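Hi everyone,

Forwarding the result from last night's run.
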Amino acid sequence: MSTPAQRPNILLITVDDMDARSPGRFGGPPGLTPHIDTLADSGTRFTDAHVVAAVCQPSRSAIMTGRYPHANGAEGFEPIHDGVPVLTDGLRAAGYALGILGKVTHLAPVERFGWDHQRDMDDLGKGRDPQRYRDSAVEFLTGAVAADRPWFLMANMHDPHRPFHGSAAETEKFGGAVGTQYPAPDVVPAPGEYPVPGFLPDIDGVRTEYAQYLASVRRCDQVVGAVLDAVRESGGTRDTVIAFLSDNGMAFPFAKANCYLQSTRTPFVLVWPGVTTAGTVQDTARITMLDLVPTFCDAAGIAVPEGATGASLRSAVMGERTPDETAFTVFHETSAKGRYEMRCAQDSSFGYLWNAWSDGEREYRAENMDGLSWPAMQDSDDPEVVRRREFYLRRAPEELYDLRADPHSLTDLAADPAYRTVLEDYRSRMRSWMARDGDPLHERFVREVSGVPAA
């Protein structure tokens, strides 16, 4: 166990709504994210890391409690339950100074987390100004170092969340903020300059919005760089453990606010002095962000909070995790309070989804359908686009995808007799996990799905 004098600093960087393949080191446009790429080169890059709920507040609450949303209370945009331990409890008791930049109210109740220093969206140029992030980070770090305290800083960027740079929605929401309250990105890709992700149709409106999104990714990278500069200049001489991730997938159809692979997979980097090795890639361990609480507790030499699940990533870095573990992810509620219960079990072979809300009539609606892409899909008469949009609205109670052949989840195999055995296998995995973790829909799943033979 670490002594107070040995405890490292901890920097948790989260970005908002970034697809796992957007940073250059994760397969994104070369040169678009130099600061994130440099960070990835300094530690271990995980290629199969997942958040457990692909929407902001539930994802972040799970990260800070080490519990699934149904176990911590924040299934939607509400506070965690009274009495649920959080990461900052143990860090505070161990002498850590606690700071947060951005997304402050997306961990609720705010006072429960005990921040010594907090600056929210409007303090940080709508969460998009590199200089304000740098200055706020320096302010916090200087105070912690002067007091000879280890520090924990959660630096949350609001890019590339909607509204995207250059969009009509940006002007509508923020008016003339660009250039006054926050800068434009220094690189603005053109529509069609980079291919759209494979789960989206390659049509004009999607190309335009994807370019706007990438411009926001670029500015996000500038903010990441500003925070890392502040840590290098003002963070003190203690070792610093750094974790980088996105809270969920990009805010486009078939991504954020769903349970697909592109909904929950996150670009994850861990820099842990003495544990990780610069420039390494972990591509055999499937992890979730429930592992962060045990990881930070391990680094700080403190006890893991009661009820937290997951395990320290030390074992994954060392290659001691069982390869190809199944990742279980969930979705409950949109930011507009639309309740769409979904569950997913996935590994490197298949992704199985249960859409408890799908009844053949109800239509799905979420913020990922705002902007240009969904209207462009609605206007298209291409048969494949029509098929995709109609499926997206109503889904099916069960979906099954061969992720090796179909990584973008385009061809649903749940009703294919050739995959009956596979379907039953993943149903069984889902049933066992729901029972083990106390999912409130477990009995319904058994009654409606798991006890019924595959079609």
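The chain has 14 helices and 13 strands.

Cheers,
N.
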